[in-house]
Amino acid sequence: MKPNLALVATVLAGSIFAQAPEYGPAKGTLVIQGGGADVGTGIFETFVNKAGGLDAKIVVVPTAGGNRTPDRNIRVYKEQVLASWKKRGATNVWMLHTHDPKVADTEEFAKILRDANGVWFNGGRQWNIVDSYAGTLTLQEFHKVLERGGVIGGSSAGATIQGDYLVRGAIAGSEIVMTPEPEHEHGFAFLRRVAIDQHINTRNRWDDLMSVIRKYPNLLGIGLSEGTAIVVTGDRFEVIGKWKVAVHDNTRLYQPWEKPYYVLGPGDVYNMKTRTIEKYGTGSPVPPPVIKAK
Question: What is d(CA 238, CA 228) in angstroms, rounded to the nearest whole number?
């Protein structure tokens, strides 16, 4: 009996569609750090390994640090931005920065991303990143880095921008958890259906995502401590680094005396789709892995 090729194609297509992640990228990896230093946490090493090693092409985006500042000496600024990367052995690292979305929407500006293996967003204020890159060709190219199997990472504001809802997007101040500014409500959704907060330990922000989840119960809230990151592949993430991650899950039933979130530590693996902890880690920082050659 000859197979029904149309039926086979339909079944295969349905199978592929069913397996597509709902939260993280279908290909590639996200490394999302809650701010602070990464020395001794394995975060830098993990990001570089995912990119392909110290000689992989890495593009650093410092725009969160200020995109409305006066014109500066770009050469000096570039040296400052890339210095720490070069000091740690990265040999093919580049800076991407503009305050002007019209520039970010040009082929000339965005082409540096076409063969990038990794992109890292520095900290600052996340609305700066939105104002420069939202709706541009550059944003499309960020997503294509993941589609090619690359890695996108970031710390502090560079963590929050990776989510769907943009926590602390208000220009008026980072203490405003939910912005009244519609143009600053949305991140770049590398990690979909998620709101990301950072510095939750040092700035006592453990409870701050509660208001977001109450208003948007379909979202998953992820709060990150400093020196701590989640490594996202598909619908799962693993906690790495020094301390804790708070997961705000509106689908979980809590006792009245509990906080409406639970806390994960290094080595814990969480499935965002099933809202379950798939593996418990040691609770200790993961030793920095050996950086592989490309």
Answer: 11
How many other CB atoms sit within 10 Å of the CB of residue 241?
A: 27
Could you tell me if residue 1 is inside a domain? no
Are 160 and 122 in contact, with CB atoms under 8 Å apart?
Answer: no
Q: Is residue 288 part of a domain?
A: no
**Domain of 219?**
22-279
The domain total for the chain is 1
Residues 6+ apart with CB under 8 A from 213: 195, 219, 221, 248, 250, 260
pLDDT in tens, 175-215: 999 999 999 999 999 999 999 999 999 999 999 999 999 99
Tell me whether residue 193 is exposed, middle or buried, using C-beta atoms within 10 angstroms of its C-beta: 0 to 12, 13 to 18, 19 or more.
middle
Please name every residue paired with 177 in a beta bridge, in sequence order, or none if there are none.
Answer: none
- Alpha carbon 89 to its chain centroid, in Å, reads 23
What's the CATH number where 85 sits? 3.40.50.880
Is-above-0.70 flag for pTM?
yes
Which of 166, 180, 96 is CA-nearest to residue 126? 166
Is residue 128 within a helix (H) or strand (E), and if so which, with residue range?
Answer: helix 126-133
Q: Is residue 16 part of a domain?
A: no
Distance (Å, whole) CA 77 – CA 8? 56
Structure tokens at 224: 């990150």
Find tokens 């809802």 and name the residue: 165
